[in-house]
């Protein structure tokens, strides 16, 4: 089964904005806002049936956590209630990747990712982080598609540069120019919102969500960029964690400060995983790959 567009991790749209126009959005800004301030306001959530037994709600959070009176934005929420309410432990909050993946879309399309024992005893909760999906989404163009062109993704550029025989080929500059132009579109259409789209702000949103769910301590699962958010939350609110699973861990320092190295490590990880899959597949007679056929993959 292939995930829907809303559940797939889009090309890292905030990364270009961070690199080109708003370097202040990386890491924890050190605003001086105390941890207790983020949890001070408890908002009662109004859950309504939305589809396939799921429930949806919205959570207002400050646009600027340092200045709560400056206005709010609404975070889109979704949950699958625990299937055995009498044995319910609490809420398990899913931290989406990307940044830019819809947590709401993930729960809609991939609820089965969470095993039966979790679904029996936890409300599985997803949310769109600020700037994403249904939570005051960033716009980078006048059209419907906020992703940069696929032809100039980092992986496509690397492939074309390799075929051209030079790592310094003009195709790399094409990527830089395209991303710069595209990031300028983000500033044009969503410039007023961009300064508030930091991982720190998302962590403070997460703490408000924890409080709104009625949880004294959070139980959470994060994958890919979600591990950066989870690690940031843990560093800011270490006493408010019941259980935290970080899967496919990103090094926050490399992710924020060495994006090229992060891409290299990602590609290396994909290559290692593919090799392990094919090696395992070769040993299984019912697998469609790896039986001594080194020829054209189009033949499979």
Structure notes:
Belongs to the peptidase S33 family. This is Protease. One of its GO terms (molecular function) is peptidase activity. This protein is α/β, with parallel strands linked by helices. Among the domains are: 28-138 and 193-250, 3-Layer(aba) Sandwich (Rossmann fold); 259-286. Helices cover 38% and strands 16% of the residues. The chain contains 10 helices and 7 strands. Strand 1 and strand 2 form a beta hairpin. The chain is globular. It starts with 12 loop residues before the first helix and ends in an 18-residue tail after the last helix.
* Number of helical stretches of at least 4 residues: 10
CATH architectural type of the domain at 28-138 and 193-250: 3-Layer(aba) Sandwich
For the biggest β-sheet, the strand order reads: 1-2-3-5-4-6-7
Helix-strand string: HHEEEEHHEHHHEHEHH
List segments where confidence is low: pLDDT < 50 over at least 5 consecutive residues: 1-40, 295-300
How much beta, percentage-wise? 15-25%
Which structural class do the helices and strands define? alpha/beta
**Can you count the beta strands?**
7
Biggest sheet, in brief? Answer: 7 strands, mixed
Radius of gyration, whole Å: 21 Å
Q: In whole angstroms, how far apart are the ends?
A: 19 Å
CATH class of the domain at 28-138 and 193-250: Alpha Beta
């Amino acid at each position: 089964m292939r995930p829907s567009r809303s559940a797939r991790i889009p090309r890292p749209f905030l990364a270009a904005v961070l690199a080109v126009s708003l370097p202040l959005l990386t890491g924890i800004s050190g605003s001086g806002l105390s941890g207790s301030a983020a949890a001070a306001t408890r908002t009662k959530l109004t859950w309504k049936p939305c589809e396939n037994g799921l429930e949806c709600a919205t959570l207002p959070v400050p646009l600027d956590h340092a200045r709560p009176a400056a206005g709010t934005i609404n975070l889109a929420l979704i949950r699958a209630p625990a299937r055995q309410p009498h044995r319910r432990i609490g809420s398990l909050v899913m931290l989406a990747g990307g940044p830019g993946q819809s947590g709401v879309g993930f729960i809609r399309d991939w609820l089965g990712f969470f095993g039966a024992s979790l679904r029996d005893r936890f409300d599985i909760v997803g949310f769109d982080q600020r700037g994403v999906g249904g939570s005051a989404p960033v716009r980078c163009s006048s059209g419907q598609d906020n992703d940069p062109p696929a032809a100039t993704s980092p992986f496509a550029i690397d492939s074309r540069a390799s075929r051209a025989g030079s790592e310094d080929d003009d195709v790399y500059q094409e990527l830089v120019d395209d991303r710069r132009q595209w990031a300028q579109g983000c500033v044009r259409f969503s410039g007023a919102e961009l300064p508030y789209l930091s991982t720190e702000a998302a962590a403070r949103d997460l703490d408000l969500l924890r409080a709104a769910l009625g949880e004294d301590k959070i139980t959470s699962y994060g994958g890919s960029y979600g591990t950066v958010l989870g690690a940031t939350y843990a560093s800011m609110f270490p006493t408010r964690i019941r259980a935290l699973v970080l899967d496919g861990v990103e090094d926050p320092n490399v992710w924020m400060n060495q994006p090229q190295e992060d891409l290299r490590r990602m590609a290396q990880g994909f290559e290692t995983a593919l090799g392990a899959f094919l090696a395992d597949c070769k040993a299984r007679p019912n697998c469609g790959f790896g039986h001594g056929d080194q020829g054209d993959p189009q033949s499979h």
